[in-house]
Amino acid sequence: MDPALEQRLIEERLIEQRLADLESRLAHHERMAEEMSEVIFAQGQTIDRLTAQLKRMRDRVEAAEYAIASPQDERPPPHY
């Protein structure tokens, strides 16, 4: 076999191997990007749910504070 042809075949095999490796890496990165996107979406939903829950709790605390009279607003006992 001609040495130049043999060298060319070796180079083509190396290029094919590198291309296959790059395709494999790309597929892996695409899967990772998809998984991260799903995680980010789920975290966004969790943040929205927790924000709404925090607002409800804050409203309840404010309502409870309003319902509780402060000591200055109370009348002194009758013996004063």
How is this structure best summarized?
This protein is an all-alpha fold. It is built from one helix and no strands.
Our Rg estimate from Cα atoms comes to 35 Å
Spans where pLDDT lies below 50 across 5 or more residues: none
- The number of helical elements comes to 1
Tell me which oligomeric state these chains represent: single chain
The proportion of residues in beta strands is under 5%
Order of helices and strands: H
Sheet having the most strands: none
How much is the average pLDDT? Answer: 92
Terminal Cα separation, in Å? 119 Å
What proportion of the residues is helical, as a percent range?
over 70%
* Helix-strand makeup class: mainly alpha
Describe the protein.
It is a single chain. This protein is mainly alpha-helical and 80 residues long. The protein has a domain at 1-52. It has one helix spanning 3-67. The protein starts with a helix and ends in a 13-residue tail after the last helix.
Give short descriptive properties of this protein.
80 residues, mainly alpha, 1 helix, rod-shaped
Per-chain topology:
Elements: H1 3-67
